[in-house]
Structure formats: C-alpha cells, structure tokens
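User: Quick sanity check before I run a bigger batch. Here is a single chain. Can you write out its predicted 3D structure?
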Amino acid sequence: MSLGLMLNKLSEGMATSVLIFVLTLLFSLPLGLLVALMRMSRHKVLQNLMRIYISVMRGTPLMLQLLVVYFGPYYIFGIKLSPDYRFWAVIIAFVINYAAYFAEIYRGGIASVPSGQYEAAKVLGYSPSQTFLKIIFPQMIKRIIPPITNEVITLIKDTSLAFAVAVTEMFTVAKALASAEKTMTAYVFAGVFYYVFNLIVAFVMENIEKRLNYYRL
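Assistant: Done. Predicted structure follows.
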C-alpha cells in the first residue's frame, strides 16, 4: 500500500477520533457541573445518588462501561439497535464516565472558594444563583483548569477504546493497516497523531489558564 493511501485511511480514523473527543467534551462538561451541584445538594437522597453514580463510574473500567452501554439494551431489554448505535454507544459511555470525573473536579473547585465570598455576596443582596454565576463560577473555572487539562489529555488517548465495539477510529485503522501490511508504519503515524493532538490541547488549555490569571503582570 502506498504511503498516500495509508495516510488517507488513517485520516478517516482520525476524523472519528476527533469527533468522539469533541462530542464527549461538549456533553460531559455541562453534565459534570450538573452532577457536581446535585452532589453538593442539601437533599440527602439526591446527594447519595450522585455519590453512588460517581463511585461506580470512577471505580469500574471505561471499557466495561462501554460494553455495558453497547450490549445492555439487547441483553437486558431485548432491544435490537441499528449498527449506527455503535458510535452513539461510545459517546454515551464516554460522556457518563467523564462527567463523573469532571463533577469531582468541579466540586473541588467550588469547595476551594473561601466561604467569605458567599457571605460578601449575601451582604450585597445577591441571590444564590447570582452568587454562583457571578462570583463562585469564575473563580472555580480559574482553579480547575489544570486538573481539567489532565482529564482532557486522557480523553484523547481513551478514544482508542472505541475499537472494543468496532468503531473505526484512529487506533482501529492503524491496527488493521499494520496487520495487513506487516509493518509498524501505521502505528508510528497513529502515535504521532495522538502526541500532536495532545500538544495542541495542552497549548490551548495553557493559554486559557494564562488568560484567567488575574495576577499576571
């Protein structure tokens, strides 16, 4: 196989990997914030449900969750799904998994804001929602950028787990090409893709962190 054809096939897998990455972040970041707020709720039932959800998501492998989401509807409910469900099973599994991690990061960021901020907002007549959106949330975002960056970088590499349900992302394509051509070239290109993607994400997140640094000279 020519190098051009190999790169063309890898680019198709790369597009799927990027799509998984983008959709996972698009849904898991807001869902994680919602889970964090429910986890910090005064309602014990809701609080405990979120604690169990987070514990299960963080305590079991992502690949296992992916297989449960994909095969569960058929084996548990007898529902036959179309082949297109493979991709959406990946998105659902990734979203609910990463939302749990993001929820704990959000919770830690919210808890790190001094209680005096809440008291000051109350004195100024802010409602609870105004306090959170105008005072707590901006400070929380600034504090959680480093751990969020770590999770985002991990997500880039985790997209390779989609091969478990035969979704042809970058790693799946590279594995098939390497097996067919009896060469490591496809793996090398795949490795370069993941590395460069990580560098780009790290660069973007670093710039966001710098922009949120209120004390920079």
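The mean pLDDT is 88.

User: Great, the batch can go ahead then.
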